[in-house]
Structure formats: structure tokens, C-alpha cells
Amino acid sequence: MRLDADARKSLIATSLIVAVSLFVVAVNYSEKPYFLLQPVFGQTFSGHWMFSKQPYKAFKPHLGYVSIPTQKPLKLHCELCSIVSSSGQMLGQAAGAQIDRSPCIWRMNNAPTRGFEQDVGRRTTLRVVSHTSVPLLLQKPQHFFGQGNDTIYVVWGPLRNMRTDGKGIVYNMLRQAAESYPQAQIYVTTEERMNYCDTVFKKETGKDRIQSGSYLSTGWFTLILAMDMCKEIHIYGMINDTYCKTEGYRKVPYHYYEAGSRDECAEYVLHESAPYGGHRFITEKSVFAKWAKAHAIKFFNPPWLLS
């Protein structure tokens, strides 16, 4: 029986590797539009829909995020969430100890902690992961999903990759991972919630995401989830919308774990001006500044001056 179990696990792991390899070859990082629906659960928007302070409702299930394979909604609520950016701004700040004192620590995509503990901390409560980063997690499935890792994973992506009818290539990968590592806590963002996040972008910027040729960032999905889940939010290593125009700004790599990689500000400007296929990082940061005036959101390393 033990031999059969080991053989089965080896077969599943091999299947995951093959699936990841095929996905890396096939994936096209320029996303195709998906159709907008009405705001999730029939929600309507008033002129102050995002800025109105709402009573904090503890232990409310988050219906826009469902587990694989049970389809049960995400249940996690924190008094304080520390969101750790993947930016090179994290380097040299020695914020790790402060971050690790937070009850909930959020990271994005495959950003590592090992080797960067002094600056980014050691613990991880939740990761928000782009569909395009799932293959990177599956290159180290034991590290991310294995025994002893109690991190919650919330994956977002367009319907073509996340559909549950057997034709969603990323969803299929995640389902295999859940079968191979049944203790893993893997959640996917529902189609309705994806459409809701698009609606938020249009409401805040006056621009249709699809028509403007842009794609929402993992940071956008992270902050929308955090405002629904966290009573207070601390964000580390995120620059504001004017930072790259500041004289003598600190030049850092786009990701703290990619030394010598492209400059963060150069990447932001490139994406902001791209006619198609770019993230609107700078636009998103201006929206985050608005949200911070109505929610308990604080920015560290660098701090933001909110007018």
C-alpha cells in the first residue's frame, strides 16, 4: 500500500511538471478581454460607494473567493494585515521584524522570504497570486503547498484560464495541486468577483479597463480583498503615483528578489504609457491614495503623504 501511494504521488507530481512545462510554453502574457457582468451579488454603486466607512464585520465569508475543490468561500479576518510589496523598495529597510509582528502577513505571487528575512520577514498568512505566476509556484510545489505550509493562496485570472469545466488550464493545474497536497489552502477568484474588480477600476478612473488596453495588477486585487478582510492595513514597499517624478528618487529593481533587473520607475512608466497589454501601476496608486483617506491604510518604506 505504501508503494502504491508513493507511486501515485510520483505520478501526480510528474503530471504537474508536464502541465507546468506546457503552460509556460503556451501562456500568452498579454491577456484577452473577458466580458463584464454586473457587480458581484447585485451590488450597486453610489457616489461614495468606496469611500464610505463601513462597520467592520468579523468572520463574514468572502463569497467571491472559493476553495478548490470544495467551493467553500474564504473565511479569514484580521485586525491588522501587513501587505508586503515585491518592490525593490523593500531592500535595505530592515522591516522584517516589524512585519513579522503583524497577525496577518500578505505577499504577492512567488515573492520569496528565504534570504530576505531581515527586510521582508519570515511569515506568510496569505498570498494573492496571478494566474501567470501559478507555474512559478508549481516549480516548487513542496515548498509552497507541502506539509507544514499553512499559507492561504488566493489566485486570480481571466475566465479562459480559470474556467472549471476542464478547459481552464490554470484551474486544472490548481486542482491537480490540491489533489496532490490535500492540506493546501487554495482559493480562486470567481468570475463575478473578477468583473466586480473591473467595475471598481472603471468607477474610480472613468476608464474601461478592456477598452483602454490595460490589465489590473496583483496589487489591485490584493488591496480590494484586504479592504474587505482587514480592519487595518499596513503596506510596505509600495511607491505612490508621484514618486517617479520626484527629484533624486531611489532607484531600485522592479522586484527585490531580482537583483540587477529592470528599474522599477522605468517599468512603471513603460506600463502606464503602453497602448495595449500594460498594467496601469501609476493610475492604480492614485486610486489607492484615495482609498487610504477613507480606510485605515498606512504606507511604509516609503511613507505616503496623503493630502
UniProtKB/TrEMBL annotation:
One of its GO terms (biological process) is ganglioside biosynthetic process. Gene3D superfamilies: Glycosyl transferase family 29. The keyword Lipid metabolism applies. Its main location: Golgi. Pfam families: Glyco_transf_29 (PF00777). Its EC number is 2.4.3.7. It catalyses: 3-O-[alpha-Neu5Ac-(2->3)-beta-D-Gal-(1->3)-alpha-D-GalNAc]-L-Ser-[protein] + CMP-N-acetyl-beta-neuraminate = a 3-O-{alpha-Neu5Ac-(2->3)-beta-D-Gal-(1->3)-[alpha-Neu5Ac-(2->6)]-alpha-D-GalNAc}-L-seryl-[protein] + CMP + H(+); a ganglioside GM1b (d18:1(4E)) + CMP-N-acetyl-beta-neuraminate = a ganglioside GD1alpha (d18:1(4E)) + CMP + H(+); 3-O-[alpha-Neu5Ac-(2->3)-beta-D-Gal-(1->3)-alpha-D-GalNAc]-L-Thr-[protein] + CMP-N-acetyl-beta-neuraminate = a 3-O-{alpha-Neu5Ac-(2->3)-beta-D-Gal-(1->3)-[alpha-Neu5Ac-(2->6)]-alpha-D-GalNAc}-L-threonyl-[protein] + CMP + H(+). It comes from the Eukaryota. Coiled coil: none annotated. The keyword Heme does not apply. One of its GO terms (molecular function) is alpha-N-acetylneuraminyl-2,3-beta-galactosyl-1,3-N-acetyl-galactosaminide 6-alpha-sialyltransferase activity. It is a single-pass type II membrane protein. Keywords: Disulfide bond, Glycoprotein, Glycosyltransferase, Golgi apparatus, Lipid metabolism, Membrane, Sialic acid, Signal-anchor, Transferase, Transmembrane, Transmembrane helix. Pathway: Protein modification; protein glycosylation; Glycolipid biosynthesis. GO terms for cellular component: Golgi membrane. It is found in: Golgi apparatus membrane. Belongs to the glycosyltransferase 29 family. This is alpha-N-acetylneuraminyl-2,3-beta-galactosyl-1,3-N-acetylgalactosaminide6-alpha-sialyltransferase. It comes from Scophthalmus maximus (Turbot).
